[in-house]
Design a protein that fits this description.
- Helix 1 crosses helix 11 (about 220-230), helix 2 packs across helix 3 (about 65-75) and helix 5 packs antiparallel against helix 6 (about 130-145).
- The protein has helices at about 20-25, 40-50, 65-75, 95-110, 115-125, 130-145, 150-160, 165-170, 190-195, 215, 220-230; strands at about 5-10, 30-35, 55-60, 80-85, 175-180, 200-205.
- The protein is an alpha/beta fold and about 240 residues long.
Length: about 240
């Protein structure tokens, strides 16, 4: 029997980040999206989710969702049957990036959430192309719905996150490492590094996507996830 698929969205995103994948895959397997917005530390978010998730599941996370996925794997490796890490980062926050979050938090507290999101996304997130404006509009709407308090909590959690290289070296689950070639926030070389850490991991680079390939190139990502869900499970 195929295991349930748990999807973890990125910062200031909700289930709509995976809308195309849910539409395609939910007829083939149980699919659920778990929020990564409840907690001011990655450890707290992961702990809260583990109490609500199935006993064993396939786990796919994008960006901050991937960071939470790695913490879930660290805490409960026997519950994660397979792992997909998309446009994410296994390293701890650098002091420079952590410091840069502080003025963003100040702006968000003063009612400038959408301004902060637009400034952050312009250089880092999306590939050029006709879909860019629609994806950007959806991301802004997700951010507005989640609101400033979620932005602040998630920023604090990212500032304090741990390095997960040891966790990945210990991973024995079938693993997909996927990223968009235009992702300046979490570049391809970081994903190559992640794939080298994980025994037997498969690396896929989506040439026409940036940081949000689930929306930018949904068909390619859905096909990659379907292939990953069909990989043979590892006997432990």
């Amino acid at each position: 029997m195929i295991e349930p698929l748990v999807l973890l969205p990125g910062m200031m995103c909700d289930a709509r980040l995976f809308g195309p994948q849910i539409a395609e895959l939910s007829s083939e397997m149980p699919v659920m999206v778990a929020p990564v917005s409840h907690g001011e530390r990655i450890e707290e978010i992961a702990s809260n989710l583990l109490g609500a998730l199935p006993a064993r599941f396939a786990l796919a996370g994008l960006s901050m969702g991937g960071i939470v996925a790695m913490e879930i794997l660290r805490r409960a490796p026997d519950r994660v049957s397979r792992l997909a890490l998309m446009d994410t980062n296994p390293l701890a926050e650098t002091p420079v990036v952590a410091a840069n979050r502080e003025p963003q938090i100040v702006k968000v507290r003063s009612g400038r959430l959408i301004e902060v999101m637009r400034d952050e996304m312009k250089p880092n997130y999306l590939a050029p192309g006709p879909q860019r404006a629609d994806v950007m509009a959806l991301v802004m709407d997700m951010a507005e719905v989640l609101g400033p308090e979620v932005f602040i909590r998630q920023s604090r959690a990212l500032q304090r996150r741990r390095d997960q290289q040891v966790t990945l070296r210990k991973c024995r689950a079938p693993t997909l490492v996927l990223c968009g070639a235009h992702d300046a926030l979490c570049p391809v070389k970081r994903h190559s590094f992640m794939a080298e850490l994980i025994p037997g991991a498969e690396l896929r680079v989506i040439e026409e996507a940036g940081h949000l390939p689930t929306l930018e190139t949904p068909g390619e990502v859905t096909a990659a996830l379907r292939d990953w869900m069909r990989m043979p499970l590892v006997l432990r």
